[in-house]
Amino acid sequence: MSELSKIIERLENNVKQLLQEREALRVENQRLSNEISVFEGALADKEALLSNWQEKYDSLKMANSMVGSNESKTAAKLKINTLIREIDHCIAQLSD
Prior knowledge:
By secondary structure, this protein is mainly α. The protein has one domain (2-95). It has two helices and no strands. The chain starts with a helix and ends with a helix. The model has no long low-confidence stretch (mean pLDDT 89). Residues 1-63 form a coiled coil. Keywords: Coiled coil.
């Protein structure tokens, strides 16, 4: 019987150890999930900031093209022509 008691005691210890490890892993998983949420929020903020700077850059590029070289003037003219076509299209849709 003594040997059976030892086996049961070892089993109980193993089960306790497994439960402790499971709890530690659950806590670590929760911590990592929270960290992921923080990083995703930071990433979204950075993407919004990047988009904002990209818009500013495009505006600055357009402004520079108005006063810049012939190459940039051509780009500005093309952009203006595109905008005029879009406005004409909108007016045509409103007229219908």
